[in-house]
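Re-running the complex after MR caught last week's input typo. The corrected sequence lines follow. Everything else is unchanged.
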Amino acid sequence: MDEVVESHLQELRRGTIVLASLEILRRPGYGYRLLETLDAAGFAVDANTLYPLLRRLEKQQLLTSEWNTDEARPRKYYTTSAEGARLAEALRADWARLGDAIDGLDNQVKE
Amino acid sequence: MKTTSESMTDRYVAAALKGVPEDQRTDVSAELRGSIADAVDARIDRGEGADVAERAVLTELGDPTRLAAEYAGRPLYLIGPAFYPDYARLLKVLLSIVVPVIAVVVGAATAMSGDDPWQVLISAASSAFSVGVQLAFWVTLVFALLERGGVQPRRSASSWDVSDLPALPDRRVGLGETIASIAGLALLIWFLIWQPGYRASLDQATAAVPILDPALSTFWIPFLVTVLLASITLEIVKYRKGRWTVPLAALNTVLSLAFAAPAIWLTTSAQLFNPAFLAATSGEALLSLVDLLPTLIAWIIAVVCVADITEGWWKALR
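Corrected-run output:
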């Protein structure tokens, strides 16, 4: 039963990682730092999901990237593009709408 | 100790890069190495040993082949949901038609050469089995290649429209049905062109006797092969249209008659079989079967032809 619950939760969370990443990366960030930020903010995500996801978002031009070689360890910094910001807004709006819709269900049940 | 831990990350990154396009390799590799090093450093800061930390980070990242597939955008399955219905349908059709046919043909052939019943049963079963395995393998291979080749199935969700709905379920021409028909026609062409010879025994020393009359090769065989090739073209056109239409049914009638009429005439007027083949088989067991063969073949051709013509008109007009 736990596996069933887990798979449904995963399904529900799927898009939220994209939204959270786009929001966090409005300020440039690299893979591992993003992973930690997401974790601290309460978004459970595995490194092996996040790293390929970042490249996919970059390919879709929702993120731009730049190598920073100033520090001892060169890091690839991602930044949300204008298009990425638009997507984040759309996702946020839908998230809010869905939240209201689910609250609306409660009222219907009570009636 | 440093070198062993380095080689662990090296091995991991190399495995994760498999299938990543050449031009992205350096980039992915540098980024993945950086991310692993960041995670390892974070663990070391928390007081873990370097080796333990690295092992833990790589374990958390999981199977590198999975990561490689994600990076390369490669599916982790052989045949995905887009192709699976056609794949399953085709495999079912082919197996349910070809395997029994092979069993019967091989069984009849071994029975004709006078083997004992056990031998007949064993050859029929083993031939049917190996043909079934071959079929399953090649069909699976073709679909797996389609999946990996990035081919979009004809009925993709984006291009679908309600007007694509078939008027009646059985009016639609399926991919499986089409490939099965084409395979059947191709088999006939193969038989006509490279007709396997008949051997009186399994001994390779005896020369194979052609089954069909060599005199046919000047006109009738090229003619029949041309008609069959036209029929294959018709199958393809029909599949692309997605259904039977009146012109297709009419053309199908012409082609069916163009094949059946000469084939029946040649069979019944004793021009089909090589006299040498009939002579070679006449002394054998199941002699009566060989005598009946022309009548039997003529009837089969007639029935198949009528069924084929009727099916076309039935599906076109309904």
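None of the earlier attempt is carried over here. The longest strand of chain A covers residues 63-68. The mean pLDDT of chain A is 91.
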